Amino acid sequence: MAEILDGKKIAGDMRALIRGETQALALRGVRPGLAVILVGEDPASVSYVSAKEKALAEAGMFSLDRRLPESAREDELVRLVEECNADPRIDGILVQLPLPKHIDEQRVLLRVDPSKDADGFHPFNLGKLMLGQDAFYPCTPYGILKMLACAGVRARGKHVVIVGRSATVGKPLANLLLNRGEGADATVTVCHSATADLAFHTRQADILIAAAGRAGLITPPMVKPGAVVIDVGVNRIPDVSKKKGFRLQGDTDFEGLLPVAAKISPVPGGVGPMTIAMLLHNTLKAAKARAERENQKETGV
Ligand code: NAP
């Protein structure tokens, strides 16, 4: 039976370390701060934002909650982003996606100061990621890399197959795994909705990462025995027996894969908690850079 990759536990350990570093930074007069911007009231986004704010508070960080109505104009949102760019208490800015249809996401993300880009979605940071340079990396792909490393799965020389090519998950993840260095050096295949014979590709995977947003897409015959399976998908399946009226399901047939895979991440409790831990990591990274700049100003070196 597959070992279950406990994202909650791995993320909890990371968050404890981050809390310690945050306390140390506070002694130097710097409290990491994240602006969390939410437009509209999409229930999934509201619940993600509150989970992130709770995690920030637990880590001892400062969060600035900024909400705009669904009807907000793009220029209002840009103005808010620019206020946060200029606010010295704010180390990181998170614009919760998706934005309402009448707002151009890419135009808004372009206005986030790249040095405050805690989500790692600015083209400057994505470009640096592609070049193999240090940057703010998108939280979900980065969290998957950490999860593999913490579970003792070495990507080096392995064939990783990713199902999904979004700019927020599939593509940055492919680049992170393709880069040189610790936790990377993999051979990567990226599949999408136009891939001919998806199962042919997924069966080649030593590490299979499903990020398609299609409940139960990956079934047992699509997985090589002994593969490591990471399930990124979060699909809300209507279920009247649940208090919220739905249950969460990943992109894999989790139960069916238990006898096939060597390791598998569950949904919920897998990649989701890792994403939040990496958001804290990126906020701390930005705050450390601020502390460094302030130190240089004081000492003149
Ligand atoms: P997205 O932007 O909708 O992208 C989905 C990708 O999957 C696209 O590239 C699409 O192909 C591909 N795809 C869809 N159906 C497919 C199929 N039948 N066969 C092969 N490829 C298929 O979604 P996303 O933002 O990347 O998110 C993916 C999933 O991860 C969602 O369920 C989302 O909720 C979840 N997610 C979870 C976290 C977390 O923290 N746990 C974070 C982010 C996202 P095309 O490009 O050809 O359309």
CATH superfamily of the largest domain: NAD(P)-binding Rossmann-like Domain
CATH topology of the largest domain: Rossmann fold
- The low-confidence runs, each spanning 5 or more residues with pLDDT under 50, are none
Bin the strand percentage: 15-25%
The succession of helices and strands, N to C, reads EHEHEHEHHHEHEHEEEEHEH
Number of separate structural domains:
2
Class of secondary structure makeup: alpha/beta
Q: Any idea of the CATH class of the largest domain?
A: Alpha Beta
| CATH architecture type of the largest domain | 3-Layer(aba) Sandwich
Instruction: Give the strand line-up of the largest sheet.
Output: 1-11-8-7-5-6
The tally of helices reads 10
Bound molecules: NADP nicotinamide-adenine-dinucleotide phosphate
Q: How many angstroms separate the termini?
A: 57 Å
User: What is the helix fraction of residues, given as a range?
Assistant: 40-55%
Overall outline: globular
- Strands, count: 11
- Average pLDDT: 97
What Rg is obtained from the alpha carbons, in whole angstroms? Answer: 20 Å
Biggest β-sheet strands, sense, barrel: 6 strands, parallel
Short overview:
The chain is α/β, with parallel strands linked by helices and 301 residues long.
What does it look like?
- 41% of the residues lie in helices and 16% in strands.
- The protein folds into two domains: 31-114, Rossmann fold (3-Layer(aba) Sandwich), CATH 3.40.50; 139-272, NAD(P)-binding Rossmann-like Domain (Rossmann fold, 3-Layer(aba) Sandwich).
- The mean pLDDT is 97.
- The strands form three sheets. The chain has a six-stranded parallel sheet. The chain has a three-stranded parallel sheet with strand order 3-2-4, sandwiched between helices. A two-stranded antiparallel sheet has the order 9-10.
- Helix 7 (170-178) links the parallel strand 5 and strand 6.
- It has ten helices and eleven strands.
- Helix 1 packs parallel to helix 10 (271-299) and helix 6 crosses helix 7 (170-178).
- The chain has helices at residues 7-27, 43-58, 74-86, 105-109, 123-130, 139-150, 170-178, 198-202, 254-257, 271-299, and strands at residues 3-4, 33-39, 62-68, 92-95, 159-163, 187-191, 207-210, 228-231, 235-238, 246-249, 263-264.
- By secondary structure, it is α/β, with parallel strands linked by helices.
- It starts with a strand and ends with a helix.
- The chain binds NADP nicotinamide-adenine-dinucleotide phosphate.
- The site of NADP nicotinamide-adenine-dinucleotide phosphate has 26 residues, from helix 10.
